[in-house]
Specification:
20% of the residues lie in helices and 42% in strands. The chain is α+β, with helices and mostly antiparallel strands.
């Protein structure tokens, strides 16, 4: 038996296997890791409405005529940027008597939502937030924002 021929065939098989693995890796990485071009930058100017409900220990907080619920929004992050209004990119204010705040005109992407409200059952201001991410580009998305004293 010719060992030179056997070694040559084994080397060729190893080379073909290695090239196949590389080809699969290149195809997989180029097709599955493409970013969604529409969701690169969160922000205003879109067709999405987030309906944010502020909840204090699972209790819905209603907008008070003299203390409307407010949701402060930071674009392109999943982290709390701070707790001052100036730390956020924009804010949305609820309407008296409603149990939610409409955040209209958003694009898909990553956000941090920080709510402030007044809980009449404890007569205290409550605040808190949650990261939010969506690929939805229009319609409505419901979001519960946890708040506490």
């Amino acid at each position: 038996m010719n060992t030179h021929k056997i070694n040559k065939n084994q080397n060729m098989k190893k080379s073909i296997l290695a090239l196949s693995i590389i080809a699969v890796a290149v195809i997989t990485s180029s097709s599955s890791c493409k970013p969604d071009k529409e969701c690169e930058d969160a922000g205003t100017g879109g067709n999405l409405t987030v309906v944010a409900t502020l909840k204090h220990h699972t209790k819905v907080i209603y907008n008070q005529p003299n203390y409307l619920d407010t949701v402060f929004v930071k674009f392109n992050t999943q982290e709390l940027p701070g707790t001052n209004a100036s730390d956020f990119d924009t804010y949305f204010v609820g309407e008296a008597g409603e149990d939610h705040v409409h955040l209209e005109g958003l694009k898909c992407g990553d956000y941090y939502m920080y709510g402030a409200a007044f809980d009449t059952s404890i007569t205290k201001r409550v605040t808190g937030g949650i990261p939010f991410s969506t690929t939805q580009t229009d319609g409505e998305v419901e979001l519960n924002v946890p708040v506490t004293e």
